[in-house]
Amino acid sequence: MRVYVPLTLPGLAAAHKAGEIGPGPLTAYAVTPGLREWYVSDDIEELEYAALNRAASASLRLIAGNPDAARRRVVVAVDVPDGAAVADPDRSLDSSSLGEVRIASSVALTEAAAVHVDADDSEKDVAAAAAALGAADLGDGDAQFTVDGAEDHELLWFGIQEIPNLIG
């Protein structure tokens, strides 16, 4: 099963140094029954893109909580055994947790398929979005517009062998 683990650049550096993403439990995003129902789609690529975007939003929250982290969202796409990623059935229709899964233990970085990271030119918008998250959560429309501005940036795809260049 493909899951998308939200990180920050310092988190990616720590995972690279340790050779694993962890420790567990990890929060990740995947194509879950709730995500399928919400998006009403059978196109697996479209659903995986939705899960990736959910992870990118979670990465933004991690950035907002870490003032020292570079203002670039990071998502690691990892393949885990079926059954290793479990969705909470009590939250399956809660729109804030769509696609959210838990992985009980750390995941070896060798299981990663790719790393998705914002381009350098997105940092200003990601920084503004991270600063606006609290107000957006409280219903401020202008703040939500700012958060959506970060989501307008597509994450770039990088191979695992490129991690040293990303964390530089």
Report on the structure:
This protein is an alpha+beta fold and 168 residues long. It has 6 helices and 9 strands; from the N terminus they run βαββααβββββααβα. It has helices at 9-18, 33-39, 44-64, 123-137, 141-151, 163-167; strands spanning 2-7, 20-21, 26-29, 74-79, 85-86, 100-103, 107-108, 112-117, 156-158. A 4-stranded antiparallel sheet has the order 1-4-8-9. A 3-stranded antiparallel sheet has the order 3-6-5. Strands 2-7 form a two-stranded antiparallel ribbon. Helix 3 packs across helix 4 (123-137) and helix 4 (123-137) packs antiparallel against helix 5. The longest helix has 21 residues, at 44-64. It is globular.
Descriptors for this entry?
alpha+beta; 21% strand; 3-stranded antiparallel sheet; 4-stranded antiparallel sheet; 9 strands; 168 residues; globular
Number of helices: 6
- Element string (H = helix, E = strand): EHEEHHEEEEEHHEH
Strand content: 15-25%
| Helical content (DSSP H or I, runs of 4+) | 40-55%
Describe the sheet with the most strands.
4 strands, antiparallel
- Uncertain residue ranges: none
What spatial order of strands do you see in the largest sheet? 1-4-8-9
* Secondary-structure class: alpha+beta
Number of strands: 9
- Overall shape: globular
